[in-house]
Design brief:
Keywords: Glycosyltransferase, Transferase
CATH superfamily of the largest domain: Glycogen Phosphorylase B
CATH class of the largest domain: Alpha Beta
Structural class: alpha/beta
Pfam families: Glyco_transf_9
Strand order of the largest sheet: 8-7-6-9-10-11
Number of strands: 11
Shape: globular
Helix content: 25-40%
Protein name: Glycosyltransferase family 9 protein
CATH topology of the largest domain: Rossmann fold
Distance between the termini: 32 Å
InterPro entries: Glyco_trans_9, LPS_LOS_Heptosyltrfase
């Protein structure tokens, strides 16, 4: 959405208030001024934001999160108009903090929902989204060195933020072994959390061979460069799946708890492996079309219903 504004309405000056971690990925994006908001600092983060804004007044504020914490922070920002989501997508008292709303849209992918904010500003529409996330020469050289050492490779980014959204280590290991039978090396990537590292270790122990384990060993931009060089990425509902989409790498997304039509990797929605439809029908007695958009399935073992056969079928389709 920001890329659309700066490309097709360059007269609009964009200030992006962004989280500390997310900024590490986005910093350097052309024609965008960033203000970093570190929510872990609590009240001090709000004080810092006021200092950074220095009483600045904006023509429009785009309230692109419905979480109450983001809504509460928005009261510190002076703007002539504060644009929020339509009533149907408004949650956590989001409607209280906006005085204008984007147009409603049924069954929209999150990305398409965000595009409604550019529509509200009158920015020209685009046929398909594009992303310009800058990488340094050093980031690109990091991935080039990996590619030179391994040749063509598949990336598995196994860990989501919650363990229940992860496929089994055995499943990931089987996918890794299958990739190697097709002539591809296998690279693991992910964040520095204990969950990421533990899952990476379990996969390494179960697979015949993991060629490179980069979990917790890269910056976000180095990871982006590694994903760009990959022939394929396999991941659950987690950030690297969407990062890979931004650089045009094919993605197999694995889903059980959330509807991939809403949150799947945008350029490969047709390649997701999902059991969401049958799970949500079993839990609610209704098809997904009859439920509130964004309805999540509940359970700690739902991802175990994803079969290795369905994953390898998508691997065949994308690698060949």
């Amino acid at each position: 959405m920001v890329e659309r504004i700066v490309t097709h309405a360059p007269h609009i000056q964009v200030t992006w208030i962004v989280g500390k971690v997310e900024y590490q990925l986005l910093k350097g994006m052309p024609n965008v001024r960033f203000i970093v908001f570190d929510k872990r600092q609590g009240k001090q983060a709000e004080v810092q934001l006021l200092n950074d804004l220095d009483n600045e007044k904006f023509d429009a504020l785009l309230l692109m999160q419905v979480a109450f914490r983001a809504n509460w922070v928005s009261r510190l920002i002076q703007a002539k108009v504060k644009i929020g989501f339509d009533w149907q997508r408004s949650k956590e008292m989001h409607w209280l903090f906006a005085n204008k709303r984007i147009a409603p849209r049924a069954h929209a992918h999150v990305l398409e929902g965000f595009m409604g904010f550019a529509d509200a500003l009158g920015v020209p529409k685009v046929d398909k989204p594009s992303w310009s996330i800058p990488m340094s020469k050093e980031d690109i050289e990091f991935a080039d060195a990996l590619h030179h050492r391994l040749g063509k490779y598949v990336v598995i980014s196994p860990a989501a933020s919650k363990a229940e959204r992860n496929w089994s280590s055995e499943g990931y290991a089987q996918a890794a072994d299958y990739a190697r039978t097709k002539g591809y090396q296998v690279v693991l990537c992910g964040g520095p959390s204990a969950l990421d590292k533990q899952l990476g270790q379990e996969i390494t122990e179960s697979a015949e061979q993991i060629d490179e384990n980069l979990i917790g060993k890269t910056s976000l931009k180095q990871m982006l460069a590694v994903l760009q060089r990959a022939s394929l990425v396999i991941a659950p509902d987690t950030g690297p799946a969407h990062m890979a989409t931004t650089v045009g790498t094919p993605v197999i997304g694995l889903y059980a708890h959330s509807n991939p039509r809403r949150t799947g990797p945008y350029n490969n929605l047709q390649n997701v492996v999902s059991v969401y439809d049958q799970v949500i029908k079993r839990q609610t007695g209704k098809d997904w079309q009859e439920l509130p958009w964004g309805k999540r399935a509940k359970g700690d073992t739902l991802m175990s219903q994803i079969s290795i056969e369905d994953v390898t079928a998508q691997m065949d389709a994308l690698l060949e």
